[in-house]
């Protein structure tokens, strides 16, 4: 039995080099224990939707918190079904391929001989796809028409799945050039951050957002936002270590390294966030600064998580966290209203994360994750850094342009921006019929109750038992 296991592991590791000179083909070589690792990671990554929901709802006003949680549900339902129908096929299809997209595996299914690796890989990649869409929801919070958002979520899969094929599909031009993105700093986070920037710009600022300065608006629930951070922190370990795609052969070693570099990067980002906040707030510690710094550090280390040393991860995370912190006031200066800082955290930090691979990558040979190339700081030449820069620019331009095109088309049929009176009343009441007391809705109802486009009786209060109230009269 021992000899059989050794033979299997030798076969797995010896075949881990891509045939075409591109990135490692390790994703295609799966044993049952690899599949167990991948599926478990996918389940954990799925819980990151809870983290995104708590974080985003905690950053917006209380009259919009249910709406943002609903958008996270929609991202899974609509984003999931479109990824199953065509998104996975555009990334990994084999019926027809060119350097920019693939065809095949539409409405994913598989026979008994290949359903193990196909379904494992599909579910893992599905968790990535829904994450890329969810990133955008926070940037559009508090003024986006829910119906328009549903349509955007239904179509947004294409924003992610095509560039994912460039870097992870064997047909992709970035893959063939030797670009590296192990855990998705570029394909997931930079794509999501670029989409968030365009969406926030097209929607415009919330009503009165910059009328009295550029300081962040009060958070609806700082506690929920911090709980969301912890959920994302936990999920990120699976995000990174699961991206090695298994534990057989030498994979388990790199999965362990990915987990350590991921957590170490968050240490660096957290320290930077605390220092930045202490200086900016004159001795106080701002919650959003710390959250943004930690998430920015995690975003920046993800792409090269398995090919960094632990101390390098701290440096990379510290820089990523700093970019996230400084980016938020910068975009506010541009009047790009992003309530959760997604443009900075998933845009600027991710751009740095893609470039950092070209500087710090270890040219290991066990899994050939870097095709034998090393980063500029590890004795390599400028080729890898140049390819990483090309990847970062390609992801940004694609995501920005396609997001603009989708929202522009959707806006022709359903206005993407809520009307002013709807924004004042809050999306919870207008879109979901939930009326919460003590958050300014009653005052808005008094002022806008006669508005021809809104029924004052449309919203029902929450947190009370109306039958008991009638009995007590």
UniProtKB/TrEMBL annotation:
The record's SUPFAM superfamilies line, in alphabetical order, gives: Ammonium transporter
Indicate how the chain sits in the lipid bilayer.
Multi-pass membrane protein
Q: Which InterPro entries match?
A: Ammonium/urea_transptr, Ammonium_transpt, NH4_transpt_AmtB-like_dom
Q: Which organism is it from?
A: Orchesella dallaii
Q: What is its main location?
A: membrane
| Pfam annotation, one family | Ammonium_transp
Q: What is this protein called?
A: Ammonium transporter
Keyword Transmembrane included in the entry's annotation: yes
Q: Which residues fall in a compositionally biased region of kind Basic and acidic residues?
A: 1-11
Region of interest (Disordered), residue spans: 1-25
Q: Which UniProt keywords apply?
A: Ammonia transport, Membrane, Transmembrane, Transmembrane helix, Transport
Report which residue ranges the record marks as coiled coil.
Answer: none
Q: Which family does it belong to?
A: Belongs to the ammonia transporter channel (TC 1.A.11.2) family.
Biased composition, class Polar residues, residue ranges: 12-25
Q: Which residues form the Ammonium transporter AmtB-like domain?
A: 37-433
Q: Show the stretches that span the lipid bilayer.
A: 35-56, 68-86, 122-141, 148-167, 187-204, 225-248, 254-275, 287-308, 314-333, 345-363, 383-410
Show the NCBIfam families listed in the entry. amt
Compartments (UniProt record): Cell membrane; Membrane
């Amino acid at each position: 039995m021992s000899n059989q296991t050794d033979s299997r592991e030798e076969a797995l590791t010896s075949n881990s080099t891509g045939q075409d000179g591109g990135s490692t083909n390790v994703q295609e070589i799966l044993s049952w224990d690899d599949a167990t690792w991948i599926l478990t990671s996918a389940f954990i990554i799925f819980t990151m939707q809870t983290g995104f929901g708590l974080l985003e709802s905690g950053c917006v006003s209380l009259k919009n918190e249910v709406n943002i949680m609903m958008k996270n549900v929609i991202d899974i339902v609509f984003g999931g079904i479109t990824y199953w129908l065509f998104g996975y096929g555009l990334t990994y299809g084999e019926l027809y391929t060119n350097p920019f997209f693939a065809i095949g595996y539409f409405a994913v299914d598989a026979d008994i001989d290949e359903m193990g690796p196909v379904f494992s890989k599909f579910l893992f990649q599905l968790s990535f796809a829904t994450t890329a869409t969810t990133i955008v929801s926070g940037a559009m919070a508090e003024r986006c028409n829910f119906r328009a958002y549903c349509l955007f979520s239904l179509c947004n899969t294409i924003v992610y799945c095509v560039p994912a094929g460039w870097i992870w599909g064997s047909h992709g031009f970035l893959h063939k050039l030797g670009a590296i993105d192990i855990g998705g700093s570029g394909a997931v986070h930079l794509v999501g951050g670029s989409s968030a920037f365009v969406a926030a710009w097209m929607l415009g600022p919330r009503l009165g957002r910059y009328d009295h300065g550029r300081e962040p608006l009060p958070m609806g629930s700082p506690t929920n936002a911090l709980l969301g951070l912890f959920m994302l922190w936990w999920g990120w370990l699976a995000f990174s270590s699961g991206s090695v795609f298994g534990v057989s052969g030498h994979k388990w070693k790199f999965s362990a390294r990915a987990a350590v570099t991921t957590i170490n990067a968050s240490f660096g980002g957290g320290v930077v966030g605390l220092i930045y906040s202490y200086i900016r707030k004159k001795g106080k510690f701002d919650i959003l600064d710390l959250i943004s710094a930690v998430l920015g550090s995690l975003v920046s280390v993800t792409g090269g998580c398995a090919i960094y040393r632990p101390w390098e991860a701290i440096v990379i995370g510290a820089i990523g966290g700093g970019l996230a912190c400084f980016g938020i006031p910068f975009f506010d200066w541009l009047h790009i209203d992003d309530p959760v800082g997604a443009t900075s955290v998933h845009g600027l930090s991710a751009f740095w994360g893609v470039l950092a691979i070209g500087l710090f990558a270890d040219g290991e040979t066990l899994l050939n994750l870097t095709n034998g190339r090393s980063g500029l700081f590890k004795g390599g030449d400028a080729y890898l850094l140049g390819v990483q820069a090309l990847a970062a620019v390609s992801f940004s331009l694609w995501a920005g342009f396609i997001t603009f095109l989708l929202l522009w088309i959707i806006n022709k049929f359903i206005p993407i921006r809520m009307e002013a009176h709807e924004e004042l009343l809050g999306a919870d009441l207008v879109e979901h019929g939930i009326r919460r007391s003590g958050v300014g809705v009653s005052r808005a109802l008094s002022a806008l109750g006669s508005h021809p486009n809104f029924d004052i009786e449309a919203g029902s209060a929450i947190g009370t038992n109306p039958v008991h109230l009638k009995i007590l009269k």
